[in-house]
Amino acid sequence: MNPELCGVSLRLREKQSLYHSLGQLVRSGVTFPAALQKLAPTSRGRLRSLLRQLNHAIEGGSTVAEAFAAQRPTVTEMEAGIVAAVERAGRLDRGLAQLAEYFGALEKARASAWKKAAYPIFVLHFGILTLGISTLVGRGLEAYVTETGSLLLLVYAVAMAFAFVVPILSDGGARSAVMDSLLRCLPLVGAIRRNFAVSRFCSTYEMQLGAGVNVMDSLKAAGRASRSGLIAHAVARAIPEVLKGEQVGALLARGSAFPETMLRDFSVGEQTGRLDEELARLADEHRRVALSKLDSLAEWLPRLIYLGIVGYLGYRIVGFYAGYLRQVQEITDQIK
């Protein structure tokens, strides 16, 4: 772990831009160290610091993969795994392009979700401030500020807790098969995680085999790059049997880590000697499915937030009028 970058993270847009630019330069024939040096003068802050550390590591004798791996946690296990796979395969430009597409899709989905969530968030704040007017009129400004402030703080605390817990769950799913299984049960989110994981596994495995890496090391690298506890567990369970000469496809089918259709196509590729083609196709197919579902999540999440907010405000309004009617009834009873 690099102490200079410890606790520092790049925005999705910054990562997308970084990998896109590096990929374009490498594809045009520029060496990777030269590409880093070309990007550094036009970069700022955290990105410039990362470029400097990568360049320093490579000048010290590290490979590109080792340089990226040393930048954790700024560079994730997934990124380091993919870079390691494509460097060994001599297809660094392709891996960088895949990472650029991945982070670009995440940034697009997040931006879309925030844009569509703006109105529900406004409605929530407006409703909390408006529904407290009765407190302002009946009990004064101090009571109003206390009541509305407490509600807003509760909302912010829940949002912050959610933002804190999500990365922890994601990391847990990458290391634990049990956690990964639970996360896969989540509507949409589970399918997105699974398809991205399968895509990363297939892509990394295909590039490792294409570089002439042995099956054992290829499987291990693909399992790490998948960021899936279930897939990593399936790989670890398969390796002893692979050493005995068993085919990989049949071993990976023992469990629920991979979709049935993917396993069938994988096995056909092994039988026909065209596994590299099948892996490349499967990686692209599952990546497209994951991106499509990510778009759906960005579309529906704000709607669900809006429905929840409207339901909460409706509950508060009904409660307000129910209390008002009780007061009227009490007054009427006293008059009688």
Walk me through this protein's architecture.
- The protein is mainly alpha-helical and 336 residues long.
- The chain folds into two domains: 12-75, no CATH class; 108-336, no CATH class.
- The chain is built from 15 helices and no strands.
- The protein has helices at 12-27, 32-39, 45-59, 64-69, 77-89, 92-131, 133-139, 141-175, 177-184, 189-210, 215-226, 229-243, 248-252, 260-272, 275-335.
- Helix 6 (92-131) packs parallel to helix 15 (275-335) and helix 10 packs antiparallel against helix 11 (215-226).
- The longest helix is centred in the C-terminal third of the chain and has 61 residues, at 275-335.
- It is elongated.
- The model is unreliable at 1-7 (pLDDT under 50).
Summary, kept brief:
The chain is 82% helix and 0% strand. It is an all-alpha fold and 336 residues long. The protein is elongated and about 95 Å long.
Structural class: mainly alpha
Helix content: over 70%
Please indicate the percent range of residues in DSSP E strands (runs of 2 or more): under 5%
Instruction: Compute the average pLDDT.
Output: 84
Q: Quickly count the domains.
A: 2
Q: Which regions contain 5 or more consecutive residues with pLDDT less than 50? A: 1-7
Shape label = elongated
